[in-house]
Specification:
Length: 457
């Protein structure tokens, strides 16, 4: 443990950071820069990459446990979004009335940059990347942060962006209080992570709506008019921001909708109307029409040229492990969708792909309800290859709906069997609906092993 002597000068306020991942490390660097004494504490092991960075910046830290006496004298605590409210250390801090906030809240205090904040149960990474791509290609000085890429705090400490596109999870929103989004986007709300919300959907919905907190009349709130949970919540909530809905089913005055010619139409006050055929979008599938509408409204709020928006929507390359094209072998397409860790994401994947599909799924099941996939499995899935230690739920859910369900224990076995089941013109899709840590380090590792196995065929 490193100690630094305190001279007689005035004592600096103590900032304690719980969790030394990407956001924790970034918050530590920003804290130092803003004149705090910083102490980083992680209950688990700190990854080597962050450990060496902390040492390089001479930031004191501890791992594999918390020194309670040190933490409970903090002036301010920043906690990792992964640490739940009911954790002992958080409860102890609450008892002492020490303010506990998230890294996004902290970083926002030290920047005048505009923020575009994107949340939703599904599609937020894609929409965040797409929005960033559109703004960047139009020549805006834009940063990308939040749940994706380098931490917001680190960029506030070291970069000079005029605007940030932030992917915000519900866990992050729970630790945000005075933060104000200039543009807030809520894509959809479907059950996910309910274990963190006492299994009450309304708690999760309220969490998502924190993205509209503190917004004023000239701020923007972009939302999906077709989403039942969002609509239900809107009847009970007061939104101060200017609201722009997007919809596939009805025409809207201001916002985005799909016309009868299957074109996205975006109309904002005093601006030239934007029109683009959904066939020209780089991202196909109904859910991606929503993602493009949301990003397109942001671009129009920024008053970008239609030509520039259209070009970016047409040449966008999606994030790794999200419906990522791997290769084609003897007429069979292989797609890596390892980031699909819930049932809803798999529904999107099945919905957006043409033709017959051999689906590789399974892993650590978060109490999944597979019933929403039944119709798509009946109509589109040739066979299911289970990959996981315990696949009983998948068998029970789909035994009557598809001809083949096979169990496998390794990725190369799963890929070989899927390849044998598939016929020319089919797609082999890795879209697990489950967490990965029974057989893999994380969803990236799972996706990388899939790609490697496909290349060995």
């Amino acid at each position: 443990m490193e100690h630094r002597s305190h001279h007689t000068r005035q004592k600096k306020p103590l900032l304690v950071i719980l969790g030394a991942g990407e956001s924790g490390f970034g918050a530590a660097v920003l804290g130092m820069k803003q004149g705090f004494d910083v102490f980083v504490s992680d209950g688990g092991e700190i990854k080597e990459i962050y450990k060496s960075q902390l040492k390089h910046h001479r930031i004191p830290f501890e791992e594999k446990g918390h020194s309670i006496d040190k933490i409970l004298v903090a002036d301010l605590v920043i906690k990792s979004p992964g640490i739940p409210e009911k954790a002992g250390i958080v409860q102890a801090l609450r008892k002492q009335r020490i303010p506990v906030i998230g890294e996004i809240e902290f970083a926002a205090r030290y920047t005048d940059a505009k923020t575009v904040c994107i949340t939703g149960s599904n599609g937020k990474s894609t929409t965040t990347m797409l929005t960033y791509h559109i703004l960047q290609k139009a020549g805006i000085n834009v940063g990308l942060a939040g749940n994706i890429g380098k931490s917001f705090a680190l960029q506030v400490a070291t970069e000079q962006y005029e605007v940030y596109v932030l992917e915000i999870s519900s866990f992050m929103l729970d630790d945000m209080y005075d933060f104000r989004a200039d543009i807030a986007v809520l894509l959809n709300i479907t059950p996910d992570h309910l274990d963190r919300y006492d299994y009450k959907m309304e708690n999760y919905v309220n969490s998502k709506f924190r993205i509209t907190r503190n917004q004023r009349g000239n701020d923007i709130f972009i939302y999906c008019k077709d989403d039942p949970e969002t609509n239900k919540a809107l009847t009970a909530k007061e939104i101060n921001a200017t609201m722009y809905p997007f919809s596939l089913t009805e025409e809207v005055q201001y916002g985005a909708y799909l016309n009868e010619e299957k074109e996205i139409v975006i109309t904002l006050p005093n601006q030239e109307r934007f029109i683009m055929s959904i066939n020209d979008l780089a991202l196909q599938g109904k859910h991606n029409v929503y993602n493009n509408m949301a990003s397109g409204i942001v671009a129009k709020v920024w008053e970008l040229r239609n030509e520039s928006i259209r070009e970016s929507m047409g040449d966008f390359v999606n994030i790794p492990h999200r419906l990522e094209h791997v290769t084609k072998i003897s007429g069979i397409e292989f797609i890596n969708d390892s980031k699909a860790t819930n049932v809803n994401s798999v529904w999107y994947a099945l919905e957006s792909l043409p033709g017959k599909i051999v689906l590789i799924m399974g892993g650590v099941d978060k109490g999944n309800d597979y019933s929403m996939l039944r119709e798509l499995v009946q109509s589109k899935v040739r066979g299911i290859v289970c990959l996981g230690k315990d696949n009983r739920n998948i068998h029970n859910a789909f035994e009557a709906d598809t001809d083949v369900i096979v169990n496998t224990q390794t990725m190369s076995e799963a890929v070989q069997i899927a390849y044998h089941i598939a016929q020319k013109g089919d797609t082999v899709l890795l879209s697990p609906a489950c967490a990965s840590f029974d057989l893999f380090k994380n969803y990236e590792d799972r996706g990388d092993q899939f790609k490697a196995a496909v290349r060995e065929l």
